[in-house]
Amino acid sequence: DSVLDHADDIEVIDLSPDDRELWVGNRAEDTLAVLDARSLEKLATIPCGRMPIRLKFTPDGARVLVSCAASNEVAAFDARASDVPGRPKTHAARTKPRAQSVARIRE
Questions:
Q1: HSE-up (13 A, CA, CB side) for residue 13
Q2: How many CA atoms lie within 13 A of 107 on its CB side?
Q3: pLDDT tens digit sequence for 37-46
Q4: In 10 A of CB 49, how many CB atoms?
Q5: C-alpha span between 68 and 20 (Å, rounded)
Q6: Rounded to two decimals, what is the model's pTM?
């Protein structure tokens, strides 16, 4: 299953500051795909809030912030989590890349 198979559902893409990973938001499946930027091999699929429409790495590459339109939230992901396949385990305390809601948008 290629990310390009879902091209109609992709609205957001960002390249990590170190140019190694490409994060892609799939608004129809409420997921983020983490790709190797050179080979475009999918490294991980991460559940996200509903309808991710914008994402951006922090300048240091430590987090990815994602705005989720249907769930009215901004989610923060640990972009350096060690359990993504192909990524070296650098710190035992790191956890799976999961969303942490950092803001709820008032309607």
A1: 13
A2: 4
A3: 999 888 888 8
A4: 18
A5: 24
A6: 0.71
Cα 91 off chain centre by: 20
- Tokens matching residue 80: 């350096």
- Cβ contacts of 26 within 8 Å, gap of 6 or more: 3, 6, 9, 10, 32, 33, 52
| Sign of the torsion angle spanned by Cα atoms 52, 55, 57, 63 | negative
Beta strands in 1-107 (DSSP E): 10-15, 21-26, 31-36, 42-47, 52-57, 63-68, 73-78, 100-104
pLDDT in tens, 46-72: 888 888 989 999 999 998 989 888 888
Query: Which residues, including other chains, have CB under 8 Å from residue 50's CB and lie 6 or more apart?
Result: 30, 68, 69, 70, 71
Residue 92: CB partners within 8 Å, gap ≥ 6? none
